[in-house]
Automatic annotation (TrEMBL):
<dbReference type="GO" id="GO:0005524">
    <property type="term" value="F:ATP binding"/>
</dbReference>
<keyword id="KW-1003">Cell membrane</keyword>
<dbReference type="InterPro" id="IPR017871">
    <property type="entry name" value="ABC_transporter-like_CS"/>
</dbReference>
<keyword id="KW-0813">Transport</keyword>
<keyword id="KW-0547">Nucleotide-binding</keyword>
<feature type="domain" description="ABC transporter">
    <location>
        <begin position="6"/>
        <end position="236"/>
    </location>
</feature>
<keyword id="KW-0046">Antibiotic resistance</keyword>
<dbReference type="GO" id="GO:0005886">
    <property type="term" value="C:plasma membrane"/>
</dbReference>
<dbReference type="InterPro" id="IPR027417">
    <property type="entry name" value="P-loop_NTPase"/>
</dbReference>
<dbReference type="GO" id="GO:0046677">
    <property type="term" value="P:response to antibiotic"/>
</dbReference>
<dbReference type="InterPro" id="IPR003593">
    <property type="entry name" value="AAA+_ATPase"/>
</dbReference>
<keyword id="KW-0472">Membrane</keyword>
<dbReference type="InterPro" id="IPR003439">
    <property type="entry name" value="ABC_transporter-like_ATP-bd"/>
</dbReference>
<protein>
    <submittedName>
        <fullName>ABC transporter related</fullName>
    </submittedName>
</protein>
<keyword id="KW-1278">Translocase</keyword>
<comment type="similarity">
    <text>Belongs to the ABC transporter superfamily.</text>
</comment>
<dbReference type="InterPro" id="IPR050763">
    <property type="entry name" value="ABC_transporter_ATP-binding"/>
</dbReference>
């Protein structure tokens, strides 16, 4: 067994009387992409701040790169990279200067940071914008620059908090490609995201958090197999006309929503044929594979949490 890069046992974070993280156990192995999923207020960001040594834990045990963040925070921070949820670029500097100045914080020589900046600009596909100011860059460019900046110190672990929030599909897929390249090069990724397709694409393993606790853990495929079915049949009805009458025994689980009924089943086409034989006439129907979003909503609910 190799030593995990991040290991937490009974990890707790309190803010006064409020307990944001309630005794979670987490183990992140070298070279994997590990995800934290959960609704707002689930404790994901609080956990990430403890791992990044920017917020002390309230209880439990935490080791990052084999060290204790309470005692070895500076040594840990020197070996990790952090991509915050909001870009914190220096708008008064050029794209290249953002990389070079940040590299100096880690004690790199001027020659070393200049060479590293060239490498990272190419990695982020920003070479042609090297002399541009930051402010007019697109959201995708700023995000790529933020990730490039986090790699100046060649981190062993890269923490990404909602890395593609607000980006268009093209920018998201380009960013995914950059992250796949980093993982292939041996960088361990720890990601929080609200995008279920992103978690399925990027994460080898993940935990679903809810109310400060871990509700489930496993690979995306394992979680779908454990908490959902192979397929989902969606039957859409006019508002107020949907019900589970005549459908309950056609699936392992039936969920009634304001505009549709979801049937979780191994064979969606067979369930649809059986429903039609019973006189059920939806406005439209769709058979799709079960997804991580189905798991997420089953574990955390559909109610909005502020």
């Amino acid at each position: 067994m190799t030593t995990p890069l991040v290991e937490a046992s009974g990890l707790t974070k309190r803010f006064g009387e409020f307990e944001a993280v309630r005794g979670i156990d987490v183990r992140v192995e070298r070279g994997e992409a590990f995800g934290f999923l959960g609704p707002n207020g689930a404790g994901k960001s609080s956990t990430m701040r403890m791992i990044s040594c920017t917020s002390p834990r309230s209880g439990g045990d935490l080791r990052v790169l084999g060290m204790d963040p309470d005692r070895d925070g500076p040594r840990i921070r020197a070996r990790i990279g952090v991509v915050p949820q909001q870009d914190t670029l220096d708008n008064e500097l050029t794209v290249r200067q953002n990389l070079e100045v940040y590299g100096r914080y880690f004690g790199l020589s001027r020659a070393a940071v200049r060479a590293k900046a060239v490498e990272l600009l190419e990695f982020a596909q920003l070479t042609e914008r090297a002399s541009s100011e930051v402010e007019p860059l697109s959201g995708g460019m700023k995000r790529r620059l933020t990730i490039a900046r986090s790699l100046v110190n060649e981190p062993e672990v890269l923490l990404l908090d909602e890395p593609t929030t607000g980006l268009d599909p093209q920018a998201r897929h380009l960013l995914w490609d950059r992250l796949f390249r980093l993982k292939a090069e041996g960088v361990t990724l720890i990601i929080t995201t609200h995008y279920m397709d992103e978690a399925e694409q990027l994460c080898d393993r993940l935990v679903v958090m809810d109310g400060g606790r871990v509700a489930a853990e496993g690979s995306p495929a394992e979680l779908i197999s454990r908490y959902s079915t192979r397929e989902v049949l969606e039957l859409r009805f006019p508002p107020g006309h949907q019900s589970a009458d005549r459908l309950e025994d056609l699936a392992e689980r039936v969920e009634v929503l304001p505009d549709r009924v979801l049937l979780y089943t191994r064979d969606g086409e067979a369930a649809l044929a059986a429903a039609q034989e019973r006189g059920v006439r939806p406005v439209s129907s769709l058979v799709r594979r079960s997804s991580l979003e189905d798991v997420f909503l089953r574990l955390t609910g559909r109610t909005l949490v502020d």
